[in-house]
Amino acid sequence: MNTPFSVAIPASSYLRRRIGGISGVARGVILADLVGAHSIVVVSDSPVAEDWHRSFAMRVRPLPTVTYASPSDVLPPGTAMLPAEAQPTRAALEALRDNSGLVLVSGDPRLIRERTDHGTVMALLRATLKPTEGPVGRWINRPISFRMSALAMKLGIGPDPITWFTLALAMVMAVILGQGGAEWLALGGLLFQAVSVTDCVDGDIARVSWAMSRRGALLDTACDMVANLGFVIGLMTGVIRTYGIDYAWIALASVVLLVSGIIAMSILVRMGPKRGSFDVLRAALEQRLEGRPLLQSVTLTLERLFKRDVYVLIACVFCLLGLAWVLPAMLLGGLCIWLGAVAWCAPLIAADSDGLLLPPHMRQL
Q1: Which of 163, 170, 245, 253 is nearest to 201 (CA)?
Q2: Average pLDDT over residues 310-338
Q3: In this predicted model, what pLDDT tens digit does every residue of 1-45 receive, in sequence order?
Q4: How far is residue 106's CA from residue 263's CA, in Å, rounded to a whole number?
Q5: Where do the H-state alpha helices sit in the chain?
Q6: Checking CA distances to 102, which of 47, 141, 231, 355 falls within 20 to 30 Å?
Q7: What residues form DSSP beta bridges with 41?
Q8: What is the dihedral of CA 281, 285, 287, 292, to 10 degrees?
C-alpha cells in the first residue's frame, strides 16, 4: 500500500503551458493523486487553469483536494517539491513519495524536458509504450502514430475524433477489399495497415493528455472489432470474387468463428473487469501458466503473433505480394487457436471483478 505524502507543484510559466494536451501543473496533480498524495499544493501567485478537472470527470475518479499557496508561504515539513522546468512522470512522483527530501534536477531520467515542445511531446509519447509492445508496434507502427498523435494534440484534436476516423477508414478498407482482383486486394491490405497505425493514435493521445475514459476504451475496442470483422468479410468476399466459390466455406467458417469470439470476449469482459479491453486474455494466459515458466514463456511469445499489429502487417504483405488466397486458411487456423485460448481462460476473466487482468493504464479508469 502506498504511503500518503504531500507534494507541491510550482505553477511556473513552463508548467502552465499546455504540452501534450494538458498543462504540466495538471499532469502533476493527476500523477500525485495516482501515487497516493494526501495533500496537493499548487504554488502560485496568480490563478491557475484547473484543467485537471476534465481528466478526473472522464475517468469517474474522485477529484482530489488541491490547495493553493503563495511562493512566499512556508510549506509544511515533509512536502515534496516538483521541479518547475520539466514535465513530471509517474516515476518522479513515486520517487518523491518514497523520499520526500529528494531533489529532482534537470536531466534526471524521471523528468521529461527536451529542447523543443515537439521533442517533449514525443518523449512523453515514448514513455507510454507498454512493456508487452511487440517489435512491429515498437519499430513500425508507433514511430508513425507518435508523429500523428503529436500533430493531433498540437491542433487540439482529442482521441474520440481519431477513433471515428479510424472506423470510417476501416469501412472504406472493407469495401475496397470486397471488390476483388489483385490490385484492390493489395490496396485493401495497405489500408488495413493504415487502420492499424491510426488505431494507435487515439490511445496515444488519451494516455499522454490523461483523456482516458471507460467510454473511450469501450469505443476503441468496438472500433477494433469492427475493423477486424470488416477485414475478414471484405477479404473473404474479395478472395471469392477473385479465386472462386471454393473459398466460400472457409469464408463462412471464419466469419462465424470471429463473431463468436467477439461475443464471447465481450460477455466475459462484461462479467469480469466491466471495462472494454480484450488485452485481459494475455494476462489470463500468463496467470494460467504460473508455475510452468518454460511453457509460459513459449506461450506468451507465440501470443504476440496474434497481436493486431503483427497479423495486420502479415496480411498486408501477403495482399501486396498477390498471395491473398493464402490468408483464409491462415485466418481460420488462427481463429481456432484464439477461441481455444478464450475458452481456456474464460473462468479467470469472468471472475476478475477487480480488474486485475486489465493493463495498468486501464485500472486507473
Answers
A1: 163
A2: 95
A3: 456 789 999 999 999 999 999 999 999 999 999 999 999 999 999
A4: 50
A5: 13-16, 24-34, 53-58, 90-98, 117-126, 135-136, 142-154, 159-177, 182-209, 214-243, 248-271, 280-288, 293-303, 308-320, 327-350, 360-363
A6: 47
A7: 8, 67
A8: -170
